[in-house]
UniProtKB/TrEMBL annotation:
SUPFAM superfamilies: Ribonuclease PH domain 2-like, Ribosomal protein S5 domain 2-like. GO terms for molecular function: 3'-5'-RNA exonuclease activity; polyribonucleotide nucleotidyltransferase activity; RNA binding. This is Uncharacterized protein. GO terms for biological process: mRNA catabolic process. Signal peptide: none annotated. It comes from Planctomyces bekefii. One of its GO terms (cellular component) is cytosol. Gene3D superfamilies: GHMP Kinase, N-terminal domain. The keyword RNA-binding applies. The lineage of its organism: Bacteria, Pseudomonadati, Planctomycetota, Planctomycetia, Planctomycetales. The keyword RNA-binding applies.
Length: 254
């Protein structure tokens, strides 16, 4: 399951809006030497398969694992090397950018972690170049999918409700946040669709209203209103370690 999540996260956003076909990627380990962990290879293999599939995939991407032996960065360390490595870092990216970082380190300084990420990205670029060579040899042309027109409700709701939604989402308690958001949505429905009307005065539908995504937030630091993979509370342990509670969407744990 964890390998599937690692594969899905950097790939899913690279399909264009308007592409709604179901895509399944099956990664199977056909042979293993027991020395190298094949999990990260799934990401690069999935990208390579999509690049020659004829689907509108905006790749290529690739991924590598980085470990450390002493103070030396190690590309794709073996299972045995990982037993003593103080860094277990999985990085996925395209030729131009880092798309995903997953892993942990044992009190790795910020500069060293940054160096490890850039070290990984240089090798990711090489793997992406190999995939482009593969595409050139197959002669496959990737289709172009026209992105759908912007929902006409989006601009209206952003101008009218974005500030109120942001304020509602800053409530400290989860139940209070939900109640504020429901009240805001109810007031907008009553305004645009009075007396349970199915369309607005200018012909917009309830479906367009429901699909107008204005759920955006710009975070400045972390606080208890952050609800997904962010820290709700920091606690200093007697030994000096910093502990934190996970957000509402995760299991609460130390």
């Amino acid at each position: 399951i964890l390998t599937s999540r690692l594969t899905d996260r950097p790939i899913r956003p690279l399909f264009p809006k308007g592409f709604t076909d179901e895509v399944q990627i099956m990664s199977n380990v056909m042979s293993s030497d027991g020395v190298n962990d094949p999990d990260v290879l799934s990401i690069t293999a999935a990208s390579a398969a999509l690049m020659v599939s004829g689907l509108p995939f905006r790749g290529p991407i690739a991924a590598v694992r980085v470990g450390m032996e002493g103070e030396t960065l190690v590309l794709m360390p073996t299972v045995e090397q990982m037993k003593t490595s103080k860094l277990d870092l999985v990085v996925a990216g395209s030729r131009d950018a880092v798309l995903m970082i997953e892993g942990f380190g044992q009190q790795i300084p910020e500069q060293e972690m940054g160096d490890a990420i850039m070290f990984a990205h240089r090798h990711i670029q090489s793997l992406c170049q190999l995939q482009l060579k593969l595409v050139a040899e197959t002669g496959i042309q990737l289709p172009v999918i026209a992105e759908p027109a912007e929902n006409p409700f989006y601009g209206r709701l952003r101008a009218e409700a974005y500030a109120a939604l942001t304020e509602a989402k800053t409530a400290k308690m989860k139940q209070e946040r939900a109640e504020r958001v429901r009240a805001l949505k109810k007031s907008l429905v009553e305004k645009y669709f009075p007396n349970e009307a199915e369309t607005t005065a200018d012909g917009l539908t309830k479906a367009q209203f429901a699909n107008a995504d204005v759920r955006e937030r710009i975070f400045h630091g972390l606080d208890s209103a952050d609800t997904h993979h962010t820290a709700n509370a920091f606690v200093m342990s007697p030994g000096g370690a910093i502990l934190f509670f996970a957000g509402d969407f995760s299991c609460r744990e130390l």
